[in-house]
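Morning, I've got a small favour to ask if you have a moment. I've been staring at a protein lately and its backbone has me curious. You're getting the sequence in one-letter code plus the fold written as tokens. I've dropped the whole record in just underneath, so have a look:
=====
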Amino acid sequence: MMRKLPSGRWQVDLQPGGRGNKRIRKSFDSKVEAKRFERWALGQQQAGNVWDALKEDLRTLQDLIKTWYDAHGRFLSDGERRFRHLERIVVAWGNPVASQVTAKTYTQYRAIRIEDGIAPKTCNNELGYLNAVYNELRRTGEIEFENPFSAVRPIKIQEREMGYLEHEQIMAIFRQLHTKATNPHVLLVARLSLETGARWSEAESLTLERVKPYRVVFHMTKSGKKRSVPVSKGLYEALVAHLREWGSLGTSTISAFRRAVDRSGVKLPQGQCAHILRHTFASHFIMNGGNILTLQKILGHSTINMTMRYAHLAPDHLEDAVRFNPVNGFDAWLDEGSVRK
């Protein structure tokens, strides 16, 4: 039986097995939650394990994170990175019982993070990772309790304009990479990112078998989808020669790139060092008259929304609003009408 209490909450009142057996009474904030529990309890009754299923879940947050990672997270392209973020949260919270965590647990933690200078976007990412753990485990039936963070809103962030390099800045940075960089791979990784719009991690992970005549295939992508991008003859030959000699384009080359940027004196927008060459490729592509849909395919964006951040750089950006509006030539029409009068 289910009924609404004077407090406004909804109560489920069940007696699995009929008269003489233990009674279940649980209250919920909404009728939907109450109905969901009622269906679940009746299903557990038919399976004969309703009382075992109703025992309090005392697994810790770390237990849930490990369960999520083993069943789902390790198959994500950024699964290990998410797992490390979640492990840090576990330590910061003292590894509480997962079913007893509340929205306040997170919002108080977030407030401290912001005070410590952590970027709002990082906090939003952490909220997304926590939501993913609880939602996935509830979807698969691993947990029966609700996601405590489902009602927490992410911090609203003002969209930043994508920075890009002018030709003089490009030359200043690459001069440092060419003459003073001690890392043997960073110059070619940077060139590959600049000439194809590849993410830094995509450029680093390129292997010889994925370099074809005047084309490279990126497979370690954010979306998980392979994409093929044409390259110049010079870049193709440089990649083949380097990969035959070294076998890879190295790892952690971004540190060497940051040092080259510092030496060049070029000031980059905050937090955009790893993506500045990708943004530079995209920006110059559009400024030189490139098609926005073609750019979407080159960059590997899953939706056009991300690519549209560069649309304002097009030479004729928004000019079609004047050329194709329904009253184009309105002034001339008015002048002509006045003459006829």
About this structure: The beta strands are 2-4, 10-14, 24-28, 211-212, 215-218, 227-230. The mean pLDDT is 86. The radius of gyration is 28 Å. Residues 61-139 form one domain.
